[in-house]
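re: ur msg from earlier - yeah i can do the beta-D-fructofuranose complex, just paste it... oh wait u already did. ok heres what im feeding in:
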Amino acid sequence: AEWNRDLRYRPYNEWPASQVAGLRRQVQASPWRLHYHIQPTTGLLNDPNGFSFFNGRWQLFYQAFPFGPVHGLKSWVRMSSTDLIHWENDGEAVIPDTPYDAQGAYSGSALPLADQLFLMYTGNVRNGSWQRHAYQVGAWMDQTGRVEKLAKPLIQAPPAGFTDEFRDPQLTLADDGRFRVLLGGQTRAKQGMPLIYEGETLSDLHFRGTLRTGIEGRSGYMIECPNLVTVDGHPTFIFCPQGMAQSVAAYDNIFPNMVITAAGVDWETLTLQAPRTPANLDEGFDVYASQAFTAPDGRTLLSSWIGLPDVTAPDSRDGWANCLSLVKELHYRDGQLYQYPVAETKRLRGEARPLHIASGTDSFIGTGDHYELALHADADTPLTLTIAGVRVTLDTTTGQVLVDRSRAGVPFATDWGTTRRFTLPAHQPVTLNAFVDTSVMELYFNNGQKVCTVRFFPQTPTDTLQLNTAAPEAVHATLYPLTA
Ligand code: FRU
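and the outut:
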């Protein structure tokens, strides 16, 4: 059947159980299912939501459309974990079933308050002529996982001068004990803007103004999923500008996920102090809508959607779409943002297999398709690595990295190019930790100085990796099978 609007927005309680059961069988037969990434059981996954620590467990929800691998009527599915690497699926947590979220329980965040978890999200509502109205709504989740929505929205409408492209609240508790909400918005003149609300209580949130980030008037027509966190003392603004000019910051993906680091925040004037120019959060093809929060243990953690708006990948042929990234810990070192999978990720490692690099071109068979490759190359040692047809060319003389997925199985998203290029420090040793999982790989260079995420859809199962270098003695590599 065609995924027309009626089908996409059909209320959850009108779907027969056979729809999900049928999809589940299709999904189970997919050769591209993942071994240690969060993936939808059926249908589509998009943004991470409500990332938090509550009731002794990590809580990480995601945007879901469980009835097909397409964007439709969105809900929140809850995942929870004690270690950030093994996740339990706790099922549907927020279903779009009130007049304030009837066309979608859109993205949002979570804040533990007393013995409950408060969820704040965007209620997407469409009228008869399909015009959007955005409410910012709230719900309490208790320790048993029961969710009770507030009777009335927290924010009824966008502020004067802004459109109903108004969503993705990041709710935090400010140092002075006030509630603060950061939201993505759009001016009537179609400029993307981050908006700030504050309140003494959740029921008196009021608009304070727009957050000045240094790119006012140059951030495109919309900002989605804004997050402001502090990373080792540095305010870090993570956001998704849509329609931003390439002259502001270069990017290759249909929509980028970007980051601006600053020296401080002036909360009187709502200004990021000494903001850097925006940079891509991820150098690869597939990261969007990342959500960060600072955990009670002091770590600032990040989860990303691996998938992009308006992009369809081959997994959808099998009744599912997209996944979440590994949980990344953020740090600020040598004036740069670093992202690296949390230390717990090492516990997924099986027995180490050292790869003996002997000649110019080595093929290693029996790798399986889900593992971590840990590689070190001395300075000035060019090398090429090929994993499942994804070719990584590393020039450690100039520091140039080229990632090419043009020969990696079923092509998709080719309108946005099949290669990505970025730079590491020249004439320096390089480390690469490649987390490979059947149809996704997360490549971390120099312990997270640069990250490059790549989806790929092999036509035949992957069991080999190739390494090519003129200086075999200068390259060291170890392979660890990874399983959750
Ligand atoms: C980003 C986004 C958000 C929105 C959600 C809806 O991918 O468009 O802005 O809240 O997805 O699923």
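cool cool. The chain has a mean pLDDT of 97. ping me if u need the other ligands too
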